[in-house]
Amino acid sequence: MSRVLLVGYGNPGRLDDGLGPAVAEHLEGLGLPDVTVQSDYQLSVELAEELRRHELILFADAAVSGAAPFEVREVTPADGSSFSTHSVSPAELLGLARRLFGTNCRGFTLGIRGYAFDAFGERLSPQATENLAAAVAFIERVLRGDTLDLLVERAEPEPRVDPKKAMSDTAA
């Protein structure tokens, strides 16, 4: 059982949307003990079972807006079941893992500021590449230091999302 699961998600074929998988690739190459790294295009309900094997979950994804180089937010598990098989949020995934498997892991999102999303190509914009380097350096410090203090200090409150609005946004 590893202590930390880092899940990098996004579409590397959509320019800066590949920031999450890029974080996963960089951190996997470090071979840090007690750290499991996964990468995928999107979060899925099947991942809930995997969460139970870890104490800390880091969800890394590209951010279309927000502060550069990145933002960290602690995830509050969602008790609702508004997710679909096409889209699951980190909060819904943590909530599902708690309901189904009794896990009590902590979750954080790492939103890395991206800039180019409206084209196809497997490359990152220069600004996103700089933000990726800053995010990887930060997460490496957290993981090598074996402490949540840096995450908690950097974390901002998670914004409240209306599940009905979120579903209508993803349906578009």
CATH architecture: 3-Layer(aba) Sandwich
Task: Characterize the overall form.
Answer: globular
Relative helix content: 25-40%
CATH homologous superfamily designation: HybD-like
Distance between the termini: 39 Å
Number of strands: 5
Integer count of domains: 1
Biggest sheet overview: 5 strands, mixed
Number of helices, where a helix is a run of at least 4 consecutive DSSP H or I residues? 6
- How would you spell out the order of helices and strands? EHEHEEHEHHH
Oligomerization category of the chains in this entry:
single chain
Radius of gyration: 15 Å
Low-confidence stretches: 160-172
Quote the average pLDDT. 84
Strand content: 15-25%
Summing up helix and strand content along with how strands pair, one would put the structural category as alpha/beta
CATH class: Alpha Beta
CATH topology: Rossmann fold
Strands of the widest sheet, in order across it, are: 2-1-3-5-4
Overview in brief:
With 172 residues, the protein is α/β, with parallel strands linked by helices.
Description:
The protein is an alpha/beta fold and 172 residues long. Helix content is 36%, strand content 20%. The protein is built from six helices and five strands. The protein has helices at 19-28, 47-51, 90-101, 126-145, 149-154, 163-171; strands at 4-9, 35-40, 56-63, 70-75, 106-113. A five-stranded mixed sheet has the order 2-1-3-5-4. Strand 1 (4-9), helix 1 and strand 2 (35-40) form a beta-alpha-beta unit. The longest helix is centred in the C-terminal third of the chain and has 20 residues, at 126-145. The N and C termini lie far apart (39 Å).
